[in-house]
Specification:
- There is one protein chain.
- The protein is α+β, with helices and mostly antiparallel strands.
- The longest helix is centred in the N-terminal third of the chain and has 33 residues.
- The termini are far apart.
Length: about 400
C-alpha cells in the first residue's frame, strides 16, 4: 500500500512538471508568433566616411557662394555679445516656424530694433508682443518667446542658454529650435532636422518610409548629428536648410544644380537600380516607390487628417458715445487654445454643426445669439445678419457668421 501511494504521488508530480513544461513551451511559441519581425537594414541609409567628407566639403563650398543674405545670419556672424547673438537667432527661428523667409525679414528687423535683447523684451507687455506679432499668425509663438525672455532675465541672470539641452528648457523651444540656436550662435556640434533637412536627407539616402514615422524621425536626427561639420556646425546646418529651400525643393528640385548629386540615391533611381532596393527594408519601403516620379518619391508623407468644420457666431455690438464715437463690445480669449489671449468681438460657438436646412440653420443661429445675450443681460436692438467670413486654420475650417 505504501509503495502504491509513493508511485501515485510520483506519477502526479511528473504529470504536473510535464504540464508546466508544455504550457511554457506553448507560451514562448505564442510570444514569438506575436513578436514583430526583426527589421531589415539594407545598409543604404547611412553615409560612409567618404560620403560624409564629400557632403561637408561640397555643401559648404556651395553655401559660401550661394547663401542668401539674411539679417539674422549677419547678426550671428558679427555680434560679439553672446547673449544678444543667441537671442537674435532664437527670435529668427521662432518667427520662421510656419512662415516664409520673405515675410519674416521685416518683422525680424522691427522686433530687434524695438527689443534688441532679452532685457528689453522681458519688460514689454503681452499686448505689445501681440501687436508686434500681428500678421505673422500663430500668436502663441510670440507669447512663448516673451515668456522665454522673462525666464532668462529672472532665472538665468540674463545669460542665454548655450547648449541644446539647456535651450530645450525655454518656453516653446523644441529640439529643432534648440539645435539651430546652439549650433548657429554657439558652435555646438549638433545637427538640425526641419522640413527642408528631412527632404534633403530622405532623397540623399533613398528613405521612402513615411517621413513622420517616429523611427524614421529618430534615424534622421542620428544622421544629422553624424554628418555635422565639426569646424562649422552652424554654417553646415544652415547650408542643409538652404539647399532644401532653394535647390532640393518639394515639387521642382533643380537636381542638375545640386552640389550633392554625386551621392544622391534618389537621383540614381531608375528601372535598373530599383531592382537592387531591398524588399524587406522598412526605410526603403520599396512598395511606395514609382520610378517615373524619380526624386519626387521622397519624402513620403502620411495622409493628412481632414480639417474639422466649425461655425462661430460673431456679434459686432456697438453703441454711440456722447461725442458721436462708436464703441464696440470686445472680449479677451482664454489663456490657452486657439488665438489664446487675443481680443475679439463677442463670439458664440454653435453647439452643433450647421444643418443642411438653411431656414433651420438661421433659427438655430438666432436662438443661440438670443440665449447668449439674455444670459449676460445685454440690452440690444436692430440685430441683423450681415454675412459669413470663412477662415482656414491649420486644422480647422472656420465659418464666422456675423
Amino acid at each position: 500500500i505504501l509503495l502504491d501511494s509513493l508511485l501515485q504521488e510520483s506519477y502526479l508530480f511528473l504529470k504536473t512538471i510535464k504540464t508546466r513544461i508544455l504550457r511554457r513551451g506553448m507560451g514562448q511559441k505564442k510570444k514569438k508568433e506575436n513578436e514583430a519581425p526583426a527589421e531589415v537594414d539594407c545598409g543604404r541609409h547611412n553615409f560612409s566616411e567618404k560620403e560624409r567628407d564629400v557632403l561637408r566639403t561640397d555643401l559648404l563650398r556651395w553655401y559660401d557662394g550661394n547663401a542668401r543674405s539674411l539679417p539674422w545670419r549677419t547678426i550671428a556672424r558679427t555680434e560679439t555679445d553672446l547673449d544678444k547673438r543667441g537671442y537674435s537667432v532664437l527670435v529668427s527661428e521662432i518667427m520662421l516656424q510656419q512662415t516664409q523667409v520673405a515675410t519674416v525679414i521685416d518683422y525680424f528687423n522691427r522686433w530687434i530694433e524695438k527689443w534688441p535683447s532679452t532685457v528689453e523684451l522681458s519688460g514689454a507687455s503681452l499686448e505689445e508682443i501681440n501687436q508686434a506679432w500681428s500678421g505673422l499668425g500663430y500668436y502663441s509663438r510670440g507669447r512663448r518667446l516673451w515668456e522665454g525672455a522673462r525666464h532668462v532675465e529672472s532665472e538665468l541672470s540674463g545669460r542665454m542658454p548655450r547648449t541644446r539641452e539647456d535651450l530645450l528648457k525655454l518656453s516653446g523651444v523644441g529640439k529643432y529650435t534648440a539645435s539651430a540656436v546652439a549650433s548657429i550662435a554657439y558652435g555646438q556640434k549638433v545637427g538640425v532636422v526641419d522640413g527642408n533637412v528631412l527632404r534633403v536627407l530622405s532623397r540623399l539616402r533613398g528613405i521612402a518610409a513615411e517621413i513622420d514615422n517616429s523611427k524614421v524621425v529618430e534615424h534622421m536626427w542620428t544622421l544629422a548629428d553624424t554628418i555635422i561639420d565639426p569646424d562649422r556646425p552652424g554654417d553646415f546646418n544652415q547650408s542643409m536648410m538652404e539647399l532644401g529651400a532653394t535647390v532640393c525643393t518639394p515639387k521642382a528640385p533643380s537636381c542638375s544644380d545640386c552640389p550633392l548629386k554625386s551621392i544622391c540615391l534618389a537621383r540614381k533611381l531608375n528601372a535598373t537600380t530599383i531592382v537592387d532596393i531591398e524588399d524587406g527594408c522598412f526605410r526603403c519601403s520599396k512598395s511606395n516607390i514609382n520610378c517615373a516620379d524619380g526624386v519626387l518619391n521622397y519624402p513620403r508623407k502620411a495622409k493628412k487628417q481632414a480639417s474639422r468644420e466649425e461655425t462661430t457666431l460673431v456679434l459686432a455690438l456697438s453703441k454711440t458715445g456722447p461725442e458721436g464715437q462708436i464703441h464696440y463690445a470686445i472680449q479677451q480669449r482664454p489663456a490657452s487654445g486657439l488665438l489664446a489671449n487675443l481680443w475679439e468681438l463677442l463670439t458664440v460657438p454653435l453647439p452643433s454643426p450647421p444643418t443642411a436646412n438653411n431656414n433651420q440653420q438661421q433659427v438655430d443661429e438666432k436662438q443661440a445669439v438670443e440665449n447668449y445675450l439674455e444670459e449676460r443681460k445685454i440690452v440690444h436692438n436692430k440685430l441683423q445678419k450681415k454675412g459669413v467670413v470663412n477662415h482656414v486654420f491649420s486644422h480647422i475650417n472656420m465659418s464666422y457668421v456675423v
